[in-house]
Amino acid sequence: MQYIYKYDSPMGMITIASNGESLTGLWFNGQKYFAGTLEKENEAKQLPVFKETRDWLDIYFTGKDPGFTPPLYMNGSKFRMAVWKILCEIPFGKIITYGGIAKQIAAKHRPDKMSAQAVGGAVGHNPISIIVPCHRVIGANGNLTGYAGGIGTKVKLLTLEGLDMTRFCVPTKGTAL
């Protein structure tokens, strides 16, 4: 059984999911792949992990690094798990490129070639947004691309973390990514 909790953030409603002990999902309502790992049978319930996650989000949305991580449970392919592990290592207020993650995966797992596009697919399917900071991944040359919650939300999250957005290329409406 999975459990859910709704969190009203300054950036919109967030749905949080748990297996009863660990966080299994966190999505902005309406985002791409919303509730992709959430079982159809779920129940709204107060759990300690939801309180811890709410505390984390309350601190985060003040523009501060919470300094702790609620217990996480993520399930995916070996490749996705490797990418998500790297996401968890990106410090608050820092960024990395899709290509940078591809290089780290290639160095660890020694494939002949690792594609930044494949990394982008894994990043996009991250089921625990914000806490597993997929918003901190950018394209080559500072391009802000590919955030399941939308580019506007990505810009707001990076701004909240104190990044100078003038150094990034933010796509405008009608601009091809």
Spatial sequence of strands, sheet with the most strands? 3-2-1-4
What is the gyration radius calculated from CA atoms? 16 Å
CATH class of the largest domain: Mainly Alpha
CATH superfamily of the largest domain: Winged helix-like DNA-binding domain superfamily/Winged helix DNA-binding domain
Number of helical elements: 5
User: What oligomerization state is this entry in?
Assistant: single chain
Describe the structure.
This protein is of the alpha/beta class and 177 residues long. The chain folds into two domains: 2-60, Double Stranded RNA Binding Domain (2-Layer Sandwich), CATH 3.30.160; 78-167, Winged helix-like DNA-binding domain superfamily/Winged helix DNA-binding domain (Arc Repressor Mutant, subunit A, Orthogonal Bundle). It is 31% helix and 16% strand. It contains five helices and six strands. It has helices spanning 48-60, 78-88, 98-109, 116-124, 151-160, and strands spanning 2-9, 12-18, 23-28, 42-44, 96-97, 137-138. A hairpin with a 4-residue loop joins strand 2 and strand 3. The radius of gyration is 16 Å and the shape is globular. This is Methylated-DNA--protein-cysteine methyltransferase. It catalyses: a 6-O-methyl-2'-deoxyguanosine in DNA + L-cysteinyl-[protein] = S-methyl-L-cysteinyl-[protein] + a 2'-deoxyguanosine in DNA; a 4-O-methyl-thymidine in DNA + L-cysteinyl-[protein] = a thymidine in DNA + S-methyl-L-cysteinyl-[protein]. InterPro entries: MethylDNA_cys_MeTrfase_AS, MethylDNA_cys_MeTrfase_DNA-bd, MethylDNA_cys_MeTrfase_DNAb, MethylG_MeTrfase_N, MGMT, MGMT_N_sf, WH-like_DNA-bd_sf. It is found in: Cytoplasm.
